[in-house]
Structures are given as C-alpha cells and as structure tokens.
Design a protein that fits this description.
Elements (H helix, E strand, L loop, with lengths): L12 E3 L1 H24 E2 L2 H20 E3 L8 H13 L3 H12 L4 E2 L4 H21 L10
Parallel strand pairs: 1-3
Antiparallel strand pairs: 2-4
Helix pairs in contact: 1-2, 1-3, 1-4, 1-5, 3-5, 4-5
C-alpha cells in the first residue's frame, strides 16, 4: 500500500504516540480549511486544481506516520479524534462556519448551507480515517 499517489518511493516515519498525535493535530486546521474551501466556494477550475493538489500533499505526511515501536499504523479511531472529533464534534456547524469565514472575503460562496458542508466534512473524515488507519493514499477522496 503506497502512501503516495504517484511514482515516488514509499516513506514511513516512526514516532512515539504522543508525537504522532501532536503532528496530526498540527495538520488538522490546514486539512480542514482546504477541504472547506473545496466544499464552500465557487472558483475557477484552475484554482480548485491547486487546492486539490495542496490537500493531497497534506495527506501524504499523515499517511506516512507510524507509532514506535514496531512502526504500527495509527488506528482509525485515533485519526478520527485528532482530525474530526476534537475540533468538530458538538460544534460541527460552528467550526465549519468559522473555517468558511477564513476565506469568505476572498472567494464567492456557493449555495451549500453550512449544515450541508458540515455533513460532507463528517462523511469525508469517516472515509479518510479508514484509509489513514491502513496507511493508504487519500488523494482519491478529495472532492472534485
């Protein structure tokens, strides 16, 4: 299972669990902000392609993380906690609205409601954490 989506050498990085958690949580906002931009704004296809490429790049790093000792993959439940539950649960619409607001002055909003986008984010993360838990590439999950 290659963690990359193109012809490069597979890489893995082993860290103690606490450091893996820190590294994952450090990417949460960037991943979710890019995801929200794809789901909430109408932009030119060239801009969407750049956002998709950036999001794919941000997935390569977490997909390569492993826990010492033994280079064990991180369970999906941990990814869920770090990337979705901690920032979103019990405030899905509020956090989603906050992420949308980060870029609302720069891009035109599409017609999707905050609630609908929050649901799409939840569904996305449900699939994402399964792949990350297996150390698989995630770029195929990125919305068009």
């Amino acid at each position: 299972m290659d963690v990359l989506d193109h012809d490069e050498t597979r890489f893995e990085m082993d860290f103690p669990r606490a450091i893996v958690a820190q590294k994952a949580r450090g990417r949460e906002e960037t991943i979710n902000e890019h995801l929200v931009k794809l789901l909430a704004f109408d932009v030119a296809s060239e801009t969407r392609a750049v956002w998709r490429k950036e999001l794919a790049r941000h997935f390569r790093f977490p997909a390569a993380l492993r826990v010492k000792p033994g280079a064990s993959p991180i369970p999906a439940r941990d990814w869920w906690t770090w990337l979705y539950a901690d920032p979103f649960e019990h405030n899905e619409a509020g956090y989603t609205a906050g992420l949308i607001a980060l870029d609302a002055d720069d891009f035109t909003r599409n017609g999707s409601s905050v609630g609908a986008i929050a649901g799409q984010i939840r569904d996305f993360h449900a699939a994402l954490v399964q792949r990350l838990g297996r150390g698989e590439a995630c770029a195929g999950l990125i919305p068009a």
